[in-house]
Amino acid sequence: MGIVIRKPLIQEIQDDSFKNKKLQLFVLRLDLLHEYISGNKWYKLKYNLEEAQKQGKRTLLTFGGAYSNHIIATAAAAKEFGFSAIGIIRGDELKEPNERLLFAQEMGMKLLYVSRELYREKEKLMKYVNEAVDINEIYILPEGGSNDLAVKGCREILNNIDINYDIVCCACGTGTTLAGIALSLKRDRAVIGFSSLKGGAFLEKEVQNYVGMEMHNWSVETNYHFGGYAKSTSELLDFIKGFNQKHNIELDYVYTGKMMYGIFDLAKKNRFIPGSRILAIHTGGLYKNK
Ligand SMILES: *Cc1c(COP(=O)(O)O)cnc(C)c1O
């Protein structure tokens, strides 16, 4: 099972902010992998889809907020690989689904809205799920698609990269992608995760749970959340616009825009050793007008 992964597309960013510091910046364009199963989400889903198939489950069920990229990717993957899909959506005030949820629905995902209180209490939520669907039929993907099989998939993100690099940068939500990358890195390389959420402490715990205590090749930057998950500022939006104008690469304000802003800021503050080759991962997350 798989989508065809062509040779990974890597672009060098020509920017004086890096040249002047003797740094090189490259972008790995995972956003170009697939129209809807975009970026890191394919890697997170890959082995879960295989496992679901192995278990003979015909329906994927997962959880997410109204703006979750994971919901869209799961809906698209289900459609592409012949599964049914159910999305448990946080917030029963969403009587009218937004554009993204409508899109998930168009791809065949059945949406069930639950209250924020119910969504928060995982035991009660699972009881609800048990009553709402035939549990024997479904393969459950946790919220954000974060599990061991997702980490296993993310270990393949840097396969077949034919440039040299020292530091990898990625955007973080659950930290699953960061964990997979950390586990796959050769010695002398390191990965920095840029948290898109406020409060990165839980994120470090998550990553540590996956990679173990003895790995020290990863770190989390918590200063670039711009107010929290899916929040933004005019400064961030201006940066994203400027970056797109200059380098013809679109970034989103939830994940990759914050990461890229952070990379430029760390360069400005001389946090990278001169001579470093930085590989930033464009994890996707662009679903405009869909
Ligand atoms: C989901 C997502 C992430 C976060 O991935 P995690 O594995 O949850 O940390 C980063 N970037 C984009 C564009 C995403 O959609």
CATH class of the largest domain: Alpha Beta
Strand order of the largest sheet: 1-2-10-7-8-9
- Number of continuous helical runs: 11
Bound molecules: pyridoxal-5'-phosphate
Helix content estimate:
25-40%
Low-confidence stretches: none
Strand content: 15-25%
* Rg over CA atoms: 19 Å
Structural class: alpha/beta
Tell me the number of strands: 10
Characterise this structure.
The structure is a single chain. The protein is an alpha/beta fold. The chain is built from eleven helices and ten strands. It has a six-stranded mixed sheet with strand order 1-2-10-7-8-9. The chain has a four-stranded parallel sheet with strand order 5-4-3-6. Helix 9 links the parallel strand 8 (190-195) and strand 9 (218-221). Bound molecules: pyridoxal-5'-phosphate (PLP). Pyridoxal-5'-phosphate binds at residues 39-41, 69-70, 144, 171-178, 255-256, 283-285.
Short description:
The protein is α/β, with parallel strands linked by helices and 290 residues long.
What's the helix and strand layout?
Elements: E1 10-13, H1 16-19, E2 24-29, H2 40-54, E3 59-64, H3 69-81, E4 84-90, H4 99-106, E5 109-114, H5 116-120, H6 122-132, E6 138-140, H7 148-154, E7 167-172, H8 176-184, E8 190-195, H9 201-211, E9 218-221, H10 234-247, H11 256-268, E10 277-282
Bound molecules: pyridoxal-5'-phosphate (PLP).
